[in-house]
Amino acid sequence: MKNNKSMNERDVKAIYWLLGRIENDKILGSFFRHKLNLQYTDLARLIKIFKDLVKMLDNPMYRTDKKILVSIKQNLEIIN
Description:
Layout: H1 9-24, H2 26-36, H3 40-58, H4 66-79
Helix pairs in contact: 1-2, 1-3, 3-4
């Protein structure tokens, strides 16, 4: 069996779901931010990135939407 290390659509949606759970659970959110050394705003940016990615996956029309692509790029740059 081939080991594919790239993310697929289900991975992106699962991460988005998980980030939503983390954001809504104070204890889990605190633990997650502490372990990854993230600020609260970084978590919000990650959620925004994955929300945009899910939107692009669900609707191919958004895959060329410059506003979404710029938003993802800007949020990634801020987190880094």
